[in-house]
Amino acid sequence: MRKEPANKLSRKGLTVWRLYGWLQTALVLLLAIGAGALTFFFDWPWFIYVIAVAVVVIYGWLFIYLFPKIRWSRWRYEVRESEIELQHGIFIVTRTLIPMVRVQHVDTAQGPILKKYDLSAISISSAATVHSIPALAAEEADELRNRISALAKVAEDDV
Amino acid sequence: MSEPRYKLHWVTVVVESVKALKEAILPLVVVFISGSRNNESGNWFLDNWSLIIGTVLVVYLLTSGFIKWRRFTYWFEDGELRIESGLFVRKKRYIPFERIQSLNYTEGIFHRPLGLVKVQVETAASSGGEAEAELTAVTREDADLIKKRIADGKKRKVEETGEVLEDGIDHAVPNEEEPVEKRVFSLNPKQLILLATTSGGIGVIFSGVAIFLSQFGEFLPLDKVSNELAGLIKFGVFIIVLLVLVGLLVAWLLSVAMTFFSYYGFTVRVTEEELIITRGLLEKKRTTIPLSRIQSVSFVENPLRQVFGYGRVLVHSAGAAGDGSKIQLFPLVKKKELYEPLQAIFPELDLREPENKLPKRGRRFYYRIDFMWMIPGIVLLGWFFYPYGLFSLLIVPLVMAFGVWQHRSAAYRVSGSQVTIRSRGFSLETSYTMRKRIQSTHLRQTIFQRRKKVATIHLNVKSGIGVHDVRLRQMDVEEAEYLLEWYEPSRECGESEFGCL
Predict the structure, then answer these.
(1) H or E element at residue A126
(2) B214 touches chain A (CB under 8 A)
(3) Which of A137, B205, B374, B404 is the most exposed place for a label (fewest CB within 10 A)?
């Protein structure tokens, strides 16, 4: 078996994903309330209430608890001298290898929620593809970005 | 220093106008036909409104072609090709010589009697079929001049930077004459006919005919005809079937003719640095592709042509316009005769058959996902069309057999810094990819795949502005990991026969 990449994402990344899960669940809850109201006014069968409640509970459990947990524990990255390796995915585990020679540029980005938790996302572009590391401590992300960019400049094409 | 400015040939007016007319033909026809129906009001303007609108449109298109020709100038200055065009919006485009990757020439039917060519200038930025710049019609001499100026400009740039000068005179002073062109491939008439008759263009043309019929059906005097046929409905059905068949035949013949005209005289030549593809009977096209831009080569055999031992060769190029990033290098070639011309173009390519097969335990994944749509489909059909709907069960063995076929077709080979991957969608595709052309790789595994110790590998190769994903499904997971290691720069795989394996 191939060794997993060494580094994990920031622990706060998990918190942020849970927060996203809460927001999505709130949206689903609104839909469920809508369905419940319609059922009440139009005398639809009672089991629609049960379904609505079940959907919200299951959705919440999956997207607030289970998926972020698996996703976070699966997410790993490693930046070595001549390549970057990533691993992620809940149902489909994807391992990605990007040689430094192929790296064209590196960006960091920070939305309002990430900013509040002092996190940053890195995206690494090759000539054809873009890969991202979604949640790193902002300082670490900046450091990593500079490091990748320096390594990418040095990397020699092996031909 | 003031450089001479050049204009395009006056045929530009004709070419541009015809092109604009061709694009506007459908609205024009609709305007004319719908206008020709009601002409009894007595008012001349009302009766002939379609004629007026149509004429104005045609005049406008002709004028715009004229203006485009009048305002278009190009010249060479400061190591750049500079182009100015436009009447109200003056457009200036300056293209540095060293950014120009290739010049493509097209000779349309208006160009040929006058010895003119259309020149398309390609840079890395040109994408989506659009050239960076297009000179609609220039004389052959001017085209040669452009070519020479660009080549000279590039050379001067190299001399100025000086870095190359150190390793000898032969680099700094390239020979003045034309680089040697070697012919490596051409379609003979028999192959051309075979290509034309088995081409897939038939679908496109057929839908074109369908649209045409749906557009013009109401203008044909069908109601008069159908009155007479009212008593002869059986005949009507017969005639409709006959008409459809004739339509299909005509569509097919049209597609054969179109393929024939556009691939007539298809020839590939190769120089030190680039591929030159010439083709066409009425409209001659000459496309150049720098060899250094080619990312991946594949040999594609669709089942119909595979039976006769034929296939076609495609190359993926980074940022090519005109024919897109996926270029037909050999539109039709016998598998046995493939080796020599391909080796002449890409001497470093290992064209041996991929021989590493996939493990049997991954076979089920080639068809198992299809049960997701098959089971609900069969249940619905069986329920609503009982008992005949149950015949849909026959699709299960078909889909499974197809999956097994795909699994059996797949293979790979790693040789030095090249990987050869063969897989079947419907056509069998064998991709030859060099390690340095792979932008990144993925290894994907679902939980089910992990249980069976298989994985899918994806190699991302640049193609135009997008990605060409070379993938092999259901490889043995350890072999897939070896492939990942082979790709990993920090591992010392060397250039040995089997790389890391």
Answers:
(1) strand A119-126
(2) no
(3) B404
